[in-house]
Structures are given as structure tokens and as C-alpha cells.
Design brief:
The protein has about 90 residues and is mainly alpha-helical. The protein has three helices and no strands.
């Protein structure tokens, strides 16, 4: 891990450790809905066009990108909800 990543992790951890818990914390479904909507739109767009090698390749690349974003959102939401519990257990 590079120095800049360690620094980012430190800043994120310090900021989160001193922050008050959000009362209006979004649910996982709330966080994922925009990404899922983009996925649905990509599928609809692909189905409405002529299927060929170029369109198929572009669809696969777009889908790969959107699924990566979906995974990033899941990890972010999960870690943000586990972090306070870890902090309490370690004290």
C-alpha cells in the first residue's frame, strides 16, 4: 500500500472516529438503488439496439464498470456500519 493510501485511510479513520452517528443513515437498499437503476438502464439500452460484436463488447464493458461500482458501494456501506462496533469492542 502506498504512502498516499495510508494517509487516506488515516484521515478517513480519524474523521469517522470523532463523528457522531448519523440518525438518517441510509439503508443498504437506499445506497444500492441508483446503481441498480443504472444497471437496469444498461440492459434496456442493449436490448433496444441491434446486437453485434461492437455493441456486445461495449455492453460487457459498461456492465463490468457498473458491477464494480456496485461492489464498491456495498463494501463502503458495510465497512461504515461495522466500524463503530469494532471500535467499541477494542476498548
Amino acid at each position: 500500500m502506498s504512502y498516499s493510501m495510508h494517509l487516506c485511510l488515516l484521515v478517513a479513520t480519524l474523521t469517522r472516529a470523532h463523528a457522531e452517528p448519523d440518525v438518517g443513515d441510509p439503508t443498504l437498499a437506499d445506497v444500492l438503488e441508483p446503481a441498480l437503476q443504472r444497471l437496469r438502464q444498461r440492459v434496456q439500452d442493449f436490448l433496444q439496439q441491434a446486437v453485434g460484436p461492437q455493441a456486445t463488447c461495449q455492453f460487457e464493458q459498461q456492465l463490468h464498470h457498473e458491477l464494480g461500482e456496485l461492489g464498491r458501494l456495498i463494501v463502503q456501506w458495510t465497512f461504515n456500519h461495522v466500524e463503530p462496533a469494532i471500535r467499541v469492542r477494542s476498548l
